[in-house]
């Protein structure tokens, strides 16, 4: 069954000339507006840049197995929240195609692919890694906050099959050392397996942080995004 992504994509425009775009994907059960408001609460203001537009899309409303099949705003379904279950590729690929359309829209508006970055929190970060390391080679970077890939993720397989000089986007990850939902070891394993398959990046452990966004990681992310798409680009 095909499920459409929510049409409500929240936009935060740059304060100056628009030269790049960041697509920020929320975690399971949240919305684009919800994660934007969470960030605003932590920072006391919107996450804004002189040159970058931020897009906060909302995931499709679909039946979600960990909630006994009740509908939730999730990028994909899964059997349970565990690294050892198979990925639900039908829903992952469906969301990937709809999110790729957002990228195509930005390119049609004159933004270079290398100046587009995609990432997110928890499930949103997982979805971003599927996009960046399966179908959107050439984007400026991928970020994943408190995020994961399953043990036998197709992402690892498709990365290992890459040949030639294709651009592998750099990765930025942060993870709380007290995360009770996606354990730190799961996030670290994801990062190490991606490294083994050619991904370069940063992994920051957030001391005394649970499964949550933190102000200090948003500041680190802010600096990393400006490195990916410099203001003068």
Q: Give the CATH level 1 class.
A: Alpha Beta
Inertia-based shape: globular
Count of the separate structural domains: 1
Strand order of the largest sheet: 1-3-2-6-7-8-9
- Total of helices: 6
Helix content: 25-40%
| Count of strand segments | 9
Which fold does the CATH topology refer to?
Rossmann fold
Radius of gyration: 16 Å
Report the CATH superfamily. Alpha/Beta hydrolase fold, catalytic domain
Q: How much strand?
A: 15-25%
Unreliable spans are 1-6
Global structural class? alpha/beta
**Secondary-structure arrangement, i.e. CATH architecture:** 3-Layer(aba) Sandwich
Give the quaternary arrangement of the chains. single chain
User: What's the mean pLDDT score?
Assistant: 93
* End-to-end Cα distance: 42 Å
Please give the largest β-sheet: 7 strands, mixed
H and E order: EEHEEEHEHEHEHEH
Overview of this protein structure:
- 42% of the residues are buried.
- This protein is globular.
- The longest helix is centred in the middle third of the chain and has 20 residues, at 89-108.
- Residues 1-6 have low confidence and may be disordered.
- Strands 1-3-2-6-7-8-9 form a seven-stranded mixed beta sheet, sandwiched between helices. Strands 4-5 form a two-stranded antiparallel sheet.
- With 233 residues, the chain is of the alpha/beta class.
- It has six helices and nine strands, in the order E-E-H-E-E-E-H-E-H-E-H-E-H-E-H.
């Amino acid at each position: 069954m095909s499920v459409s992504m929510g049409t409500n994509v929240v936009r935060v425009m740059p304060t100056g000339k628009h030269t790049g775009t960041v697509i920020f994907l929320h975690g399971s059960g949240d919305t684009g507006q919800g994660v934007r408001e969470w960030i605003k609460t932590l920072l006391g203001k919107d996450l804004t840049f002189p040159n970058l537009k931020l897009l906060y899309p909302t995931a499709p409303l679909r039946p979600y197995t960990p909630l006994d099949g009740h509908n939730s705003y999730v990028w994909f379904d899964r059997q349970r929240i565990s690294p050892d279950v198979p990925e639900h590729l039908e829903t992952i690929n469906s969301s990937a195609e709809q999110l790729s359309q957002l990228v195509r829209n930005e390119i049609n508006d004159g933004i270079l692919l290398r100046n587009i970055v995609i990432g997110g929190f928890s499930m949103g970060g997982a979805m971003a890694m599927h996009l960046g390391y399966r179908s959107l080679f050439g984007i400026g970077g991928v970020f994943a906050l408190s995020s994961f890939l399953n043990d036998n993720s197709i992402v690892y397989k498709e990365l290992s099959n890459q040949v030639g000089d294709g651009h592998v986007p750099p990765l930025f990850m942060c993870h709380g050392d007290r995360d009770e939902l996606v354990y730190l070891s799961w996030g670290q394993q994801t990062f190490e397996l991606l490294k083994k398959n050619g991904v370069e990046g940063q992994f920051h452990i957030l001391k005394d942080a649970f499964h949550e966004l933190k102000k200090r990681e948003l500041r680190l992310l802010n600096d990393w995004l400006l490195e990916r798409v410099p203001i003068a680009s």
